[in-house]
């Protein structure tokens, strides 16, 4: 595992050993409450040779065993070796901010915070996993516990893995997100609780560093909340960074610049165009190790590059949408969940009709049909899987060839997929919205949002911290009623209300835009030829996974404006880059 030196720059070399040399630890991440834990452990008789957090983790584990992991407020992937019992313990933070891969082959365990660390281990085999490829083209990424390789797994968030001599790896959860029913309180009380908790969480993550700390700033609710809280607690102007586009519909930089001016930040905006986006894709693919189809990885890459030229640590607003119901899909789910059962049942007939043609005149009917299909599903969890698809099942059936379809029975059956992950959705909550949001928090957040930021930032030796996922903020969010978070058709109400006095008037009233690229437009223009060439030269067309005629038809349909295949073509391009660079079996 590799780690940036942020705390105790002189004493952060790893591995670190216990005083008696029995235990050794390697660790990737940061622990923000390590000073308080160190004081507690000193009172219990532990001695420390460094000023860093790594030694504190090891001492905490020696004192409290696996109960120590839940006490760590931060982000971590860690491995502890017991030289006496020859037991290995791996652990990953509660929400999966930091990655941890492992492979168990022939009685040997290989592990690392990057897939590429495993790929160079001699004697191991790595074959593409057809189900993971299916999931990739369905959701745009591969979700834990799978990786793109059949022989490699991802340690799920909030889990430990133990390996004893002569045994096999055993997984156990040390923490699970659960909704808690708090006593009734006024909305204003929830807002004040968030404001106080938020200020302290941001302060803790600013202070836990011996280097300058900046911030990603998009001008949206969460990043603006981060910078506003930083500015209120810093004696120096905050350095902030954003990405802009020529296409105004996707460009949030004017809002970011307005926030930066209001808060007195030292701000930089970096603009990117289609040529820059395409040029960086090979580097992105190398950094991510497996195909990753979120186009916002490109602006995140450039954002990290720009920020890393000035600071070593930034704070970002990731996690706020999942915890406080900020996505448009959460509002849709709330409306669906409140429909009478008889109405939802009656929508099944419309949902069962063949998909409507894509022509412009059918767009509204198409949206209604998608809503009807979601409403016909049995739970919020099932609707989460349906809503987070980047391609429709009908399109995948056109694209996938026999090799990829073999053994995929049920992979497109949303209800079966939901039951596989959550056998009893009602055990999460009787509220469909809370079911939906829990799946967002546990599945989409680590595999999509946090993966995107971690890989892009670490490739530039930049550490990104996420105060929305501080223990105190998460605990508050899990106690907060859904109707407080989503109020009057607007998500993240307590966040908005808490930080509104600190921000320019009207900034928080605008519609959520999201950190995206105009891939649909670009693949009808400059990127079309590049993508076709990549498809034809990568070897994927001869792999037996995809139907070449169907892929060529998608290129033609998109170029002519008959369909919007922008997300598919981006996913295909990243898959081709991965395929051509993967290790030989």
Radius of gyration: 24 Å
CA(first)-CA(last) distance? 24 Å
Which CATH top level class of the largest domain fits?
Alpha Beta
Q: Provide mean pLDDT, rounded.
A: 91
* Derived structural class: alpha/beta
Unreliable sequence segments: none
- The CATH fourth-level homologous superfamily of the largest domain: HUPs
State the total count of DSSP E strands.
Answer: 14
Output the CATH topology of the largest domain.
Rossmann fold
For the largest beta-sheet, the strand count, sense and barrel status come to: 6 strands, antiparallel
CATH architecture assignment of the largest domain: 3-Layer(aba) Sandwich
Strand content: 5-15%
What does this structure look like?
With 585 residues, the chain is of the alpha/beta class. It folds into four domains: 16-100 and 155-173, 4-Layer Sandwich (Glutamine Phosphoribosylpyrophosphate, subunit 1, domain 1), CATH 3.60.20.10; 187-324 and 450-509, Rossmann fold, CATH 3.40.50; 328-438, no CATH class; 519-581, no CATH class. The protein is 46% helix and 12% strand. The chain is built from 27 helices and 14 strands. It has a six-stranded antiparallel β-sheet. Strands 12-11-10-13-14 form a five-stranded parallel β-sheet, with helices on both faces. Strand 8 and strand 9 (170-173) form a beta hairpin. Helix 6 packs parallel to helix 7. The model has no long low-confidence stretch (mean pLDDT 91).
Provide a brief overview of the structure.
The protein is of the alpha/beta class and 585 residues long. The strands form 3 sheets. It has a 6-stranded antiparallel sheet.
